[in-house]
Amino acid sequence: CDVKTILSHLWHSAEVFTYVGQLEFFYNEATDGTRSISTAIFLSEIGLGSCLSNALVKIIERATGGQEEGWLRNDLNMSKLDYFYWILAGINGLNFFVYFWVAWRYKGR
Description:
Layout: H1 3-29, H2 35-63, H3 66-69, H4 81-105
Helix pairs in contact: 1-2
Transmembrane segments: 83-104
Keywords: Membrane, Transmembrane, Transmembrane helix
Protein backbone atom coordinates (compact mmCIF):
# COMPACT_ATOMS: atom_id res chain seq x y z
CA CYS A 1 0.00 0.00 0.00
CA ASP A 2 1.25 3.48 -0.87
CA VAL A 3 2.15 5.85 1.99
CA LYS A 4 0.09 8.64 0.40
CA THR A 5 -2.94 6.37 0.34
CA ILE A 6 -2.55 5.48 4.02
CA LEU A 7 -2.23 9.15 5.02
CA SER A 8 -5.23 10.05 2.90
CA HIS A 9 -7.31 7.37 4.61
CA LEU A 10 -6.21 8.61 8.03
CA TRP A 11 -7.26 12.18 7.24
CA HIS A 12 -10.60 11.06 5.85
CA SER A 13 -11.31 8.76 8.79
CA ALA A 14 -10.88 11.73 11.15
CA GLU A 15 -13.37 13.72 9.07
CA VAL A 16 -15.84 10.83 9.13
CA PHE A 17 -15.69 10.55 12.91
CA THR A 18 -16.16 14.31 13.25
CA TYR A 19 -19.13 14.38 10.88
CA VAL A 20 -20.80 11.38 12.49
CA GLY A 21 -20.45 12.88 15.96
CA GLN A 22 -21.72 16.28 14.87
CA LEU A 23 -24.68 14.83 13.00
CA GLU A 24 -25.57 12.60 15.95
CA PHE A 25 -25.41 15.62 18.27
CA PHE A 26 -27.74 17.62 16.02
CA TYR A 27 -30.13 14.70 15.71
CA ASN A 28 -30.24 13.93 19.46
CA GLU A 29 -30.53 17.53 20.67
CA ALA A 30 -33.13 18.70 18.16
CA THR A 31 -36.84 18.40 18.82
CA ASP A 32 -38.86 15.96 16.74
CA GLY A 33 -40.10 18.69 14.40
CA THR A 34 -36.70 20.21 13.72
CA ARG A 35 -34.55 17.14 13.07
CA SER A 36 -34.65 17.52 9.30
CA ILE A 37 -33.75 21.20 9.63
CA SER A 38 -30.81 20.36 11.89
CA THR A 39 -29.53 17.90 9.28
CA ALA A 40 -29.81 20.61 6.63
CA ILE A 41 -27.94 23.05 8.88
CA PHE A 42 -25.19 20.45 9.34
CA LEU A 43 -24.76 20.04 5.58
CA SER A 44 -24.91 23.81 5.07
CA GLU A 45 -22.03 24.23 7.53
CA ILE A 46 -19.84 22.00 5.38
CA GLY A 47 -20.60 24.12 2.31
CA LEU A 48 -20.10 27.37 4.23
CA GLY A 49 -16.75 26.14 5.51
CA SER A 50 -15.63 25.44 1.96
CA CYS A 51 -16.68 28.92 0.82
CA LEU A 52 -14.94 30.58 3.78
CA SER A 53 -11.78 28.60 3.07
CA ASN A 54 -11.77 29.83 -0.51
CA ALA A 55 -12.46 33.40 0.63
CA LEU A 56 -9.59 33.28 3.14
CA VAL A 57 -7.16 32.13 0.45
CA LYS A 58 -8.30 34.93 -1.89
CA ILE A 59 -8.10 37.58 0.87
CA ILE A 60 -4.58 36.56 1.88
CA GLU A 61 -3.52 36.31 -1.74
CA ARG A 62 -4.71 39.86 -2.47
CA ALA A 63 -3.43 41.33 0.81
CA THR A 64 0.09 39.98 0.37
CA GLY A 65 0.75 40.86 -3.27
CA GLY A 66 -0.98 38.28 -5.43
CA GLN A 67 0.36 35.13 -7.04
CA GLU A 68 3.58 36.75 -8.27
CA GLU A 69 4.91 38.33 -5.06
CA GLY A 70 2.64 37.24 -2.19
CA TRP A 71 2.59 34.42 0.29
CA LEU A 72 0.68 32.07 -2.03
CA ARG A 73 2.66 32.13 -5.26
CA ASN A 74 2.37 29.96 -8.32
CA ASP A 75 5.79 28.50 -7.45
CA LEU A 76 5.46 26.73 -4.09
CA ASN A 77 9.22 26.89 -3.53
CA MET A 78 9.01 30.70 -3.50
CA SER A 79 5.79 30.86 -1.47
CA LYS A 80 5.69 31.77 2.18
CA LEU A 81 3.34 29.02 3.26
CA ASP A 82 4.63 29.17 6.83
CA TYR A 83 3.02 32.62 7.23
CA PHE A 84 -0.24 31.32 5.81
CA TYR A 85 -0.22 28.36 8.19
CA TRP A 86 0.51 30.67 11.15
CA ILE A 87 -2.64 32.59 10.20
CA LEU A 88 -4.57 29.30 10.11
CA ALA A 89 -3.12 28.27 13.48
CA GLY A 90 -4.24 31.59 14.97
CA ILE A 91 -7.75 31.16 13.58
CA ASN A 92 -7.88 27.60 14.93
CA GLY A 93 -6.65 28.75 18.35
CA LEU A 94 -9.35 31.42 18.48
CA ASN A 95 -11.90 28.84 17.31
CA PHE A 96 -10.84 26.48 20.11
CA PHE A 97 -11.40 29.11 22.78
CA VAL A 98 -14.81 30.03 21.33
CA TYR A 99 -15.73 26.33 21.24
CA PHE A 100 -14.53 25.84 24.81
CA TRP A 101 -16.58 28.83 26.01
CA VAL A 102 -19.74 27.66 24.19
CA ALA A 103 -19.31 24.04 25.38
CA TRP A 104 -18.81 25.25 28.96
CA ARG A 105 -22.05 27.25 28.85
CA TYR A 106 -24.08 24.60 27.01
CA LYS A 107 -26.79 22.74 28.88
CA GLY A 108 -28.12 19.64 27.13
CA ARG A 109 -31.73 18.81 26.46
